[in-house]
UniProtKB/TrEMBL annotation:
This is Probable branched-chain-amino-acid aminotransferase. Acts on leucine, isoleucine and valine. Keywords: Amino-acid biosynthesis, Aminotransferase, Branched-chain amino acid biosynthesis, Pyridoxal phosphate, Transferase. InterPro entries: Aminotrans_IV (IPR001544), Aminotransferase-like (IPR036038), BCAT-like_C (IPR043132), BCAT-like_N (IPR043131), Class-IV_PLP-Dep_Aminotrnsfr (IPR050571). Belongs to the class-IV pyridoxal-phosphate-dependent aminotransferase family. Its cofactor is pyridoxal 5'-phosphate. Its EC number is 2.6.1.42.
Length: 282
């Protein structure tokens, strides 16, 4: 925290921190696989982009943050970890309501890598429900800033659990597919990929899928993804740092296509994990 390395149990923030009181914070999560960071530069770009948009400052530049993250991983002792960097607005020493008075705080931690999908779910594909009650309102929070505004997403999750699904997809106000709690979504139809273009976090794993598709000549575009496109897709998968590329085989209780993990999802997943061995991708 700030410039100190502490055991997790000793890391504390003030209850007056605007990050806690107003969700006035940004963060990023990157993963380390077999001792190596995966696409750290892209995560740092997004984190520093968020800081700039929120007018937050930290006393470290990119190299400084990278060094802290490496130290967190080394101190944690985990070879494969999930590493989070956070900046909160902080608390105002005078209790004022002016965010400029708050002292921004930087913290980071490394915990063991844990996937959204367990090995069994990776084999058979996730069961997902489209939330019936929750929609993501456009521009309430700039989705390009990675943020902790998860009220919609968590409500969507409960909506999904109520219908015995394992996770949720949320629609935007126009009724098109947006994203889920902590992941982006792709549909595969007739050998081409499509993912929602707007109102979503520009995920680094989403970006990696575009890069992989360019390498193996699979067409991939960002555009409007309708619920019908999702229901009639040949394959669906979700993407996130915590899990990579994860298959979805059941939507609202019905199988997607034949209900099995599809060949494009398999090919991309294999390639994604192979890139973790490639130093050019770290
Ligand atoms: N969408 C949301 C709302 C997220 O919180 C996340 C990750 O936490 C993602 C998408 C996936 O982004 P990434 O691939 O960078 O982990």
């Amino acid at each position: 925290m700030d410039s100190q390395y502490l055991p997790m149990s000793e890391a504390k923030i003030s209850v007056l921190d605007w990050g806690f009181l107003h969700s006035d914070a940004t963060y990023d999560t990157v993963h380390v696989w077999g001792g190596r960071f995966f696409r750290l530069d892209l995560h740092l770009d997004r984190f520093f982009g968020g800081l700039e948009k929120l007018r937050m400052t930290i006393p470290f530049n990119r190299d400084g943050v990278a060094e802290i993250l490496h130290n967190c991983v080394a101190l944690s002792g985990h070879r494969s970890s999930y590493v989070e960097m956070i900046c909160t607005r902080g608390a105002s020493p005078t209790f004022s309501r002016d965010p400029r008075d708050a002292v921004n705080r930087f913290m980071a931690f490394a915990i063991p890598y844990g996937s959204v999908a367990n090995p069994e779910q990776m084999q058979r594909g996730l069961h997902v429900a489209i939330s019936r009650t929750v929609r993501i309102p456009a521009a309430s929070v700039d989705p390009s800033i990675k943020n902790y505004h998860w009220l919609d997403l968590v409500r969507g999750l409960y909506d999904a659990y109520d219908r015995s699904a394992e996770t949720a997809l949320i629609l935007d106000m126009a009724g098109n597919v947006a994203e889920g709690p902590g992941f982006n979504v792709f549909v595969v139809s007739n050998g081409a990929l499509m993912t929602p273009a707007s109102g979503v976090l520009p995920g680094i794993t989403r970006r990696t899928v575009f890069d992989l598709c360019a390498e193996i000549d699979i067409p991939a575009v960002a555009g409007e993804v309708t619920v019908d496109a999702l229901r009639s897709a040949d394959e669906v998968f979700i993407t996130s740092t915590a899990g990579g590329i994860m298959p979805v085989t059941v939507l609202d209780g019905r199988p997607i296509a034949d209900g099995k993990v599809g060949p494009v999802t398999r090919q991309l997943t294999e390639l994604y994990w192979r890139k973790h061995e490639d130093p050019n991708w770290s």
